[in-house]
Design goal:
single chain; about 35% helix
Length: about 400
Amino acid sequence: MPATSLSSGAFYQRWLGPVLANDEGLDAEQLSRTALTALGQASLRRRWPGVSSVLDGLAGDLQRRDLRLEQVLFGCRFPNPVGLAAGFDKNGVAAGIWDRFGFGFSEVGTVTWHGQPGNPRPRLFRLAEEQAALNRMGFNNDGAQALLKTLQRQKLEPPGRRPAVLGINVGKSKITPLEQAPDDYASSLELLAPLADYAVINVSSPNTPGLRDLQDTMQLRRLVERLRRLPACPPLLVKIAPDLEDDAIDGIARLAFEEGLAGVIAVNTSLDRLGLAKRRLQQTGRTLAEEAGGLSGVPLRHRALEVIRRLRVSAGPALPLIGVGGIDSPEVAWERISAGASLVQLYTGWIFKGPDLVPLILEGLQQQLDRHGLRTIREAVGSGLPWQG
């Protein structure tokens, strides 16, 4: 559906387009916080007559329903393959309304057992020209117990009966030593498991010291085995970094098979500056090479695709993969699915392109199914079929 003067996409571009076109101006983190506050209020009151009519209008604008886009993966029915990535709704405040934006699933978190403020500000930077972002948030969140209360207050439908699938992304508290990480993750997951359609083990954020060491096969196996012992453990996925060597990616694929993981999410943000080492942040005056944090958005696209392709070869066709990183168009989403991803997630691209990106991708996927003569999106996964313009 093209953006009309009344569409949410046109409204977004009119008011936020000029802001997002510049590195400076409104602080990126404050902008997100303001939006989430409003969305959180809407989610709590989504059944109120006035609010529900607005949300119904939003859904009419942005949702695209098509049985060909549905999939059942690790026991969850995904109405479409496009999801909101973890990191935007860290505290799950808008968990009840992400389906209205057209998403087939959303992932809240990263949540840690201990609530924590994260790293000092500024810690989130727009790179407008490159359609990218640098973040060193540091798992700022209110903690697992607060997330439980937030989700309960929204009176969500139980898992399996929701309009969109809900994943909960779990990380390690900064104050917890690495050797105690399995118990730290387990505390959060045991509390939140009843509300999760699936859970993600985040061992790949670059902004918690030592966290990426948990991607080591021995460490990760120990962590997975601890979580699998939990009563009523939801389907478990692991989220990996784009900066892993190929042999480490192969090792995680083997571990996923041996430990019965439900899938792998690839990828998190990158410590590699991806050709932008000399790019200077106007807010700090320093180059990206001098700044801490993970890079996301368009510069990550090529490496994220490489990792999906590597995983698909090393894991075989059965393991579900979720592709994330630099997806900001129907063509890029199709490329990731064709390379082996069953699902894709948006974050940075969705911020820059606005809410119209979700229906645009879904319509593009429908178009490609037609042009390739495919009956369902599952037939496209790992097919290697090119985008047909």
